[in-house]
Amino acid sequence: MAKTLPTHAQTVIIGGGSIGCNTAYHLTKLGMTDVVVLERDQLTSGTTWHAAGLIVAGLLQSEAECEIYTHGRDLYANLEQETGVPTGFRDVGYLQIANNEERVHEMRRLAPFMRRHGINIYEISPKETADLFPIGDLSDVLAGFYIPEDGRANPVDVTMSLAKGAKMGGAKIHEGVTVSEILAKNGTATGVRTADGQTITAENVVICGGMWSRQLGAKAGINLPLQAAEHYYLITENIDGLSRDLPVLEDPSTYTYYREEVGGLMLGLFEPGAAPWKLDGIPDNFTFGEIEPDWDRVGPHLEKAYSRVPDALNVGVRKLFCGPESFTPDLAPLVGETPELRNCFVACGMNSLGILNGAGTGKVLAEWIVSGHPQIDVTGINVNRFTRHEATRAFRRDRGPELLGKMFGQHFHNEGFHTARDLKRSVLHDRLAANGAYFAEGHGWEMPDWFAPTAEQAKIEEYSWSRQNWFDWHAEEHRAAREDVIIMDMSTMSKFQVEGPDALALMSRLSCNEVDIEPGRLVYTAWVNEKGGFEADLTVTRLAEDRFMVVVGENSHGHTLMRMKRHIHEGEVVVITELTPAITQINIHGPKARMLMEKVTSADMSNEAFPFMTWQDIDVGYWVVKAFRVTFVGELGWELQVPSYAAVQVYDLLKEVGQEFGLRDAGMQTLNSLRLEKAYRDFGLDVDNTDNPIEAGLGFAVKLEKPGGFIGRDALAEIKARGIPNNRMLQFLLHDPEPLLYGNECIYLNGVEVGHLQVGGYGHSLGGAVGIGFAELDEPLTASIVAEGSWEVEVAGARVKATASLKPLFDPGMLKVKS
């Protein structure tokens, strides 16, 4: 007999696992009481019931990750007091071990950052490590990193406690109800239909269906790239003397975590070469289900896991458990409002961390639903970051095996994914490969990272946090940009044509800068939300009275497109066309850029005829291309937007003629080092939606008095009216030329910690590592404080003296750019 369901709810949540119950709980905490949770079977019956329940920080590399984690740890530790239902949380401690110098260095880099954000992680000696985990063979351990407040919880108990809390706040939870369809009208979610034909209308629909989310979303045209994979843990028989308070141990060298389990030891695997499960879809009737273990495949990984705890071999195996967990292509969850349907939200793809991060994610999503703006940065988890190819069967099949091992193994700053590659390739790819390009992957694009002298040398000999084999080749590219001229393939940049009678209205509404400019000009601008937080930084070019071009980094492609579409008002006529596949962007930069361009075009490239921040159609050889005089590297130069069918010929011509001027190919490492010397900002890397242009030093691109205003204008006006901010983005240069910066290094002023770097690189022209980051004081951070203060940056536990600056340390007067 079908259950009688309400016909309407303010919010309907699909899925009654950790994420669904967390979202319902946090919605009620924000005052939304008309919430309905629909669970196809029983609460926790999907993957929540078999989770290991680890409440441990791991290695967290962003403020958002730290906030999501600490919220969950604190909530689970205290939830029973509110609901009366225990969570099983016990702060047994969490121990990470390092058995090589690179791992020690990595941990020492991140530990201060994590401490800054409320996680009490500290280094301990090998002896102290062994004392904390006496069952292990830790003879090869060089250092341990310990968090005494971390621990474990019971996943079922946690979820039931959350469900009780949600119901106490007014939510209704219905088990045994399968949602078969998300209802929509005119691009907006309007409710759900159940398998027995009942309909619930709703203002908001939330997909928290775990590994079922992809196939449910696909029915509504929603792109949710996630894939279930086999996930193993082994539980031994009882071990005499094993303490119930044994800390959780994580060992990247064996890809295993270890914890006590009812008198035995649990060995949890995150093995390389994992096995995707049910590529064609998860069965609807898979409930409290297990997968038959593949002993042959997992045997070698178990052998390695046992090598850390050899005494455990003396007792029997109580259980080898295999159950599915869902993973995403970049190992970050899928959260937020879907670009395909308004008022349809999602939180899934938790990468086996649904208990650990469920509370923080539920809080973020609840804020998103209620107010439209989460309190933390969501650029790294926003569901709109993916394109449809990552959800194809072939992509999920090929990327899936790499994901578990990538989560748990040793990490390096420039090591990307190795599977499901060569998807988005510039038409220049083969030319660049022949010229010695080493390709990194970014949002599906194959991007030249640096160039070796020959194609055979275009490889990383050994990953390291120190200088790698390509460092000197990259330095030569950098110097060529500052002394001669470089050529860069920037086809990855996302390019949109925005046209129609209301195109100007849309661009003006979104842009902080004035975009009602003459055709032939372009402007740099930020887009912000109603609170003044960044949503994009990009260039807007006026091609004609009713036609614009928007150019933004590949990491912001989906978000930028979604933001434009969502802000076209009813009755307005605007057509947005994606031009990225049709245009190959070739950048020419350096003091000899003009000399090179004058050799290949009949156009007048002089400063007077072609000033900075303008564009023209020019001939290059046989072809007519759009040339934009703009830079992200701080040098004279042009970005050439070439029809892709002509790109190889244009590139070959530039390379041939450029020999006279010392032209070199340059990659993304050089782009990063050049732009950091110039202190150029980059949304998604340096600034995010919790930052604003005023504090980020981009006030010059904010025109508060422009006619008609813009989204976020009032918030930015209020921030500016306060005067000199306490929180400001600064550029830093290390005095010692040896240490390297990558981001997350803590900043000290007069011995007091005041911030951390967002990103770092090596400033070959400035003679040391450079980075940019926010520093925050209890008083206005004035220019005199910046200039007169004693600044240091902490690198792997050592403080290094640094110069701080509000203005770019390289060419602050823009003389080179405007030459």
UniProtKB/TrEMBL annotation:
SUPFAM superfamilies referenced in this protein's UniProt entry, alphabetically: Aminomethyltransferase beta-barrel domain (SSF101790), FAD-linked reductases, C-terminal domain (SSF54373), FAD/NAD(P)-binding domain (SSF51905), Folate-binding domain (SSF103025)
Entry-linked Gene3D superfamilies: Aminomethyltransferase beta-barrel domains, D-Amino Acid Oxidase, subunit A, domain 2, FAD/NAD(P)-binding domain, Probable tRNA modification gtpase trme, domain 1
Domain named FAD dependent oxidoreductase: residues: 12-368
Cell division among keywords: no
Residues in coiled coil: none
Keywords, sorted A to Z: Oxidoreductase
GO molecular function term, any single one: 4-methylaminobutyrate oxidase (demethylating) activity
Residue ranges annotated for the Aminomethyltransferase C-terminal domain, each copy included: 728-811
The EC number(s) this enzyme carries: 1.5.3.19
A Pfam family reported for this protein in Swiss-Prot or TrEMBL: GCV_T
KW Calcium (keyword) present: no
PROSITE patterns noted in UniProt: PROKAR_LIPOPROTEIN
Entry GO terms, CC: cytoplasm
Domain GCVT N-terminal per the UniProt entry, residue ranges: 428-706
Domain of life of the source: Bacteria
Domain FAD dependent oxidoreductase central: 372-426
InterPro entries: FAD-dep_OxRdtase, FAD/NAD-bd_sf, FAO_M, GcvT/YgfZ_C, GcvT_C, GCVT_N, TrmE/GcvT-like
Family statement drawn from the similarity comment of this UniProt entry: Belongs to the GcvT family.
Protein name per UniProt: 4-methylaminobutanoate oxidase (Formaldehyde-forming)
Organism: Aliiroseovarius pelagivivens
